[in-house]
Design goal:
With 477 residues, the protein is an alpha+beta fold. It is 30% helix and 27% strand. It contains eleven helices and 27 strands. The strands form six sheets. Strands 5, 6, 14, 15, 16, 17, 18 and 19 form an eight-stranded mixed sheet that branches. A six-stranded mixed sheet has the order 8-2-1-12-22-21. The chain has a four-stranded mixed sheet with strand order 25-24-26-27, with no helix packed on it. 46% of the residues are buried.
Length: 477
């Protein structure tokens, strides 16, 4: 049902469904439509990282997704002959989820849809957006069903989660700038006989090209390998040769149930919002599959945007300020994520002497400098997402600053609303002013050491946004 109090979400992929969950959790009515009745059974995305498991846990979804998926404990970067770098997710110390989960996108979407159905929301398939116009208090949308009939409706807000060819972005006339050449990949999920570590995500680089291996359970792996544009299907023999030449792995492929080719265009929307409409996920940005960051980045978009929409729709907040901040925060973070994908790609650069020198220096830094290794691991797990302070943020400088992610392994339940914490400080337990409004006291004796180091030595009052990022940090005297 679409009416003037409803947020219309266009696109029923993971990012669109997550946006609907975030809005519903905040008490905002949402409707999801998708031009297709059937989303298919194959996908490019497979891995959910630590930060996204934190976000899913707020919806009671982390546990079922973990149970349904395959645990990932480390990320490796190699040539066919040697290991260049290893990133241990178990070294992540400020999260309850120091691992990743490999789960096919259709299975992940099924969990999201089930949770939405439990909340009374179903996806309206076979309905596409063909136009929209921002109005003074909402958005007028034009829709078309599978029979060709058209409808006009009014919504409080529109979210474009409809992928790289977004109809929402096109209707808003937002430029989708391209950076770098297109890349084509061949993918398949296949059982591989051999001694491949069952909990490693591996990226391999050679003079023959790049290849990625992601465990998908029961001895099977997702293989993704770069191919020329317009290349013929590889088949079982082609994937076997790619494993040997690019990864140095000699193994039999037990079966090849399917093969798919897809093209990656590196693009970024010039803005993520206009009026009372906003973009999330692939509608706003597309990137290299290196590092498995794309879908995860979209889930962060959803968490960042939804609470802002609630304030606009339910509390009559000024849209421009909140949405300008959404664009600023998420565009900045997406650029950093893209840099991570490029960083992994540079491991495979061997075309020139300078490329090879850069790779060796990077490999040495990862192997011999723990701080460098930890920084890259946090980035791959998207635990280092950090937003610049907004104009509403105040507070003294500390280890924890406005815009930072609050550690997830605190003795408090996951939350989805604005919340205030009173931190006793890591040095002692001082007298705390009882007049300070708070909902939860964080006592140093109950907070893990690594989280306490992030919270800072001095007692403080910390306010946190619904997406788990700090709004303000005020030291207490």
């Amino acid at each position: 049902m679409i009416d003037e109090s409803t947020v219309l979400i266009v696109g029923a992929g993971p990012t669109g469904l997550m946006t609907a969950l975030e809005l519903t959790l905040n008490g905002t009515a949402a409707t999801v439509i998708d031009g297709r009745n059937d989303r298919g059974v194959r996908s490019k995305a497979t891995t959910i990282w630590s930060r996204q498991l934190e976000l899913l846990d707020r919806h009671g979804l982390a546990e079922p997704v973990i149970e349904a998926g395959t645990r990932v404990d480390r990320i490796t970067v190699s040539t066919p002959y040697r290991r260049l770098g290893t990133f241990e997710l178990g070294e992540l110390t400020t999260t309850r989820f120091p691992f990743g989960i490999s789960i096919p996108q259709p299975d992940f979407e099924a969990h999201l849809r089930l949770r939405l159905r439990e909340l009374g929301i179903t996806v309206e398939g076979g309905l596409e957006l063909i136009g929209l116009e921002n109005t003074a208090g909402g958005v007028c949308v034009a829709l078309r069903d599978v029979h060709g009939s058209t409808y006009e409706r009014h919504a409080a807000f529109v979210v474009g989660a409809d992928g790289p060819e977004s109809s929402v972005r096109a209707a808003l006339n937002i430029k989708f700038s391209q950076y770098g050449p297109d890349t084509t990949f061949a993918i398949t999920d296949v059982a591989i006989s051999g001694t491949i570590p069952p909990r490693d995500v591996g990226y391999y680089y050679s003079t023959h090209g790049a290849l990625g291996l992601v465990p998908v359970g029961a001895g099977a792996f997702r293989i993704a390998t770069g191919i020329p544009h317009g290349a013929d299907y590889l088949g079982q023999q082609g994937f076997r040769e790619a494993l040997a030449l690019r990864a140095g792995i000699t193994a039999d492929l037990v079966d090849l149930p399917w093969e798919s080719h897809f093209q990656v265009k590196f693009r970024h929307a010039d803005t993520y919002s206009m009026g009372r409409a906003a973009l999330v996920g692939d509608a706003a940005h597309t990137m290299s599959p290196a590092g498995g960051q794309g879908m995860n980045t979209g889930l962060q978009d959803a968490a960042n945007l939804a609470w802002r929409i609630t304030e606009i729709v339910s509390h009559s907040a000024e849209p421009s300020t909140l949405l300008d901040e959404y664009t600023q925060e998420r565009r900045g973070d997406v650029k950093r994520v893209m840099q991570t994908s490029r960083l992994l790609t540079r491991f495979g650069a061997t075309s020139t002497l300078s490329n090879r020198i850069e790779r060796e220096l990077l490999s040495a830094a990862v192997r011999f400098t723990p701080a460098v290794r930890r920084k890259i691991t946090h980035r791959l797990a998207q635990l280092d997402t950090r937003y610049a302070p907004s104009r509403r943020s105040f507070g003294e400088k500390s280890s924890l600053r406005p815009g930072d992610r609050l550690p997830d392994n605190l003795p408090t339940a996951p939350h989805h609303a604005h919340r205030t914490y009173r931190w006793t400080g890591s040095r002692s337990t001082p007298h705390l002013d009882a007049s300070v409004a708070h909902t939860h006291t964080l006592n140093a004796t109950a907070v893990p050491d690594d989280a306490a180091a992030v919270l800072g030595k001095k007692p403080a009052v910390i306010t946190v946004r619904p997406d788990g990022h700090v709004t303000s940090y005020t030291a207490l005297r």
